[in-house]
Amino acid sequence: MKKRDIYEVAIKLLGIYVAFITLNQCKDFLALLFFIPAYKNVFDNDWTILFSGFVLIGTLLITYLLLFKTQKIVKLIAQPSDEEIVNVQFSKKQLYQICLVLSGILTIVFSISEFIHVARNFSLSLKDTGLQFNKIHWVFPIVKVIVGVLLVKFSVALSDYINDKIK
């Protein structure tokens, strides 16, 4: 495995991490789109939505570049000396698989804590009749747990797919 290959793996892993951040930003942006119109008298302009949309588009663009334009990024940052072979025990596919499993486990752990927080807020809203609890808050932690489970379950197939896309 060459140093350039290690750069590729690191950039792809960073892309996977940014993809999870993008998923979270999509959740926040959708919440902003659906809840700000209810409070239109508080917000006189739509700059918040516009700015959030630009941030989301920028993050999506960065995710795309990191995941699908890895070779071009490596060409920009790699030195000629990075062509030397480095002895590592893992293949690219195995590294992708390990990172997908770790990403899935982290997603599950963070989503479960978010789910517990939502459940706590729901129980508080039941005690206090003045609070209204929106059911949409249940959806995002559940979807994240499902994505985490799918990452762990299909890590081999996903690592094969990512590895084939590099070639």
SSE topology:
Elements lengths: L2 H33 L11 H22 L1 H8 L14 H36 L8 H18 L1 H12 L1
Helix pairs in contact: 1-2, 1-3, 1-4, 4-5, 4-6
Your description of this structure?
Keywords: Membrane, Transmembrane, Transmembrane helix. The chain crosses the membrane at residues 12-35, 47-67, 95-116, 136-158. With 167 residues, the chain is an all-alpha fold. It has helices at 3-35, 47-68, 70-77, 92-127, 136-153, 155-166. Helix 1 runs antiparallel to helix 2 (47-68), helix 4 packs antiparallel against helix 5 (136-153) and helix 4 (92-127) crosses helix 6 (155-166). It starts with a helix and ends with a helix. 14% of the residues are buried.
Percent of residues in helical segments? over 70%
* β-strand number: 0
Structural class of the helix and strand makeup? Answer: mainly alpha
Question: How far is it from the N-terminal to the C-terminal residue, by CA?
Answer: 14 Å
**How many separate domains?**
2
Largest sheet: none
Number of helices: 6
Q: Approximately how much beta-strand content do the residues carry?
A: under 5%
Radius of gyration: 20 Å
Which spans have pLDDT < 50 for at least 5 consecutive residues? none
Question: H/E element string?
Answer: HHHHHH
Query: Which geometry do the CA atoms define?
Result: elongated
Average pLDDT over all residues: 78
Transmembrane segments: 12-35, 47-67, 95-116, 136-158
Keywords: Membrane, Transmembrane, Transmembrane helix
